[in-house]
Specification:
Length: 114
């Protein structure tokens, strides 16, 4: 079955960086466009980044554009999210998901606080 396991979250000060990873199994990763979502406390889960199968096209929500970078390693079945210049409003649980397949992982908590 589809398995998505996010990791790399933690507590970081404003202005800091984190790199999230998402290990994928249960489907052909290289054939799936992938996404990152996040859900802040009391808010809906929102799409923040998308990447095509060959990583030739990426897109970002305005709130993270210029600070976050989505990437993938098809040989390792792994999706990444490099997050720079983090702000307190980036505090959320971060999830990866295949664009056109159902299923969520447990997420990884990112907390930005001084």
């Amino acid at each position: 079955q589809v398995q998505l396991v996010e990791s790399g979250g933690g507590l970081v000060q404003p202005g800091g960086s984190l790199r999230l990873s998402c290990a994928v199994s249960g489907f052909t990763f290289s054939s799936a466009a992938m996404t990152w979502y996040r859900q802040a406390p009391g808010k809906e889960r929102t799409l923040i980044a998308t990447i095509t199968t060959a990583a030739d096209i990426t897109s970002y929500a305005d709130s993270v554009k210029g600070r976050f970078t989505i990437s993938r390693d098809n040989a390792k079945n792994t999706l990444y999210l490099q997050m720079n210049n983090l702000k307190p409003e980036d505090t959320a649980v971060y999830y990866c998901k295949a664009l056109t397949r159902p299923g969520w992982g447990p997420g990884t908590q990112v907390t930005v606080s001084s």
